[in-house]
Design brief:
Radius of gyration: 14 Å
CATH architecture: 3-Layer(aba) Sandwich
GO biological process, one term: fucose metabolic process
Number of helices: 4
Order of helices and strands: HEEHEHEHEE
Helix content: 25-40%
Pfam families: RbsD_FucU (PF05025)
InterPro entries: RbsD-like_sf, RbsD/FucU_mutarotase, RbsD_FucU
CATH topology: RbsD-like fold
CATH class: Alpha Beta
Mean pLDDT: 92
Strand order of the largest sheet: 2-5-1-6-3-4
Structural class: alpha/beta
Shape: globular
GO molecular function: D-ribose pyranase activity; fucose binding; L-fucose mutarotase activity
Catalytic activity: alpha-L-fucose = beta-L-fucose; beta-D-ribopyranose = beta-D-ribofuranose
Length: about 140
Amino acid sequence: MINGPLLHPQLLHALAAAGHGARVLVADALYPHSTAAPANATRVYLNLCEGMVPALAVMDAVAQSIAVEEITFMATAEGEASDSVTECQRHLADHRHAGGSEITWSSLDRWAFYAACREPDVCLVVATGERRPYTNFLLTIGVP
């Protein structure tokens, strides 16, 4: 299932153990990583300092390593996509999942997003150094 340039051993292990339908949370530095995800989800802390590692870099590496079927993002308080989400959507526009289809994008408000991230199918939480609020993504793994 792994087929990209990702080198981080703990991320590779968690992604290799995940299967179709499992979900990966890529979260900004402001996200409650320890409480807003299942206790059994693997947590990888890449938030070395502000801006390192940015969410876009993590999203790109993960999308090159697994088949991403859907990406759900946390909508702003106004119900919109943040600038960082729009940037990610543009950057990942060329990524495809099984059968060459485009990745499906959807949004949830803050509390619904937190609820979705607490579901047992979330197997991995990646804490980034991203400081822009509302830069949180829930990726659903598809079939390669």
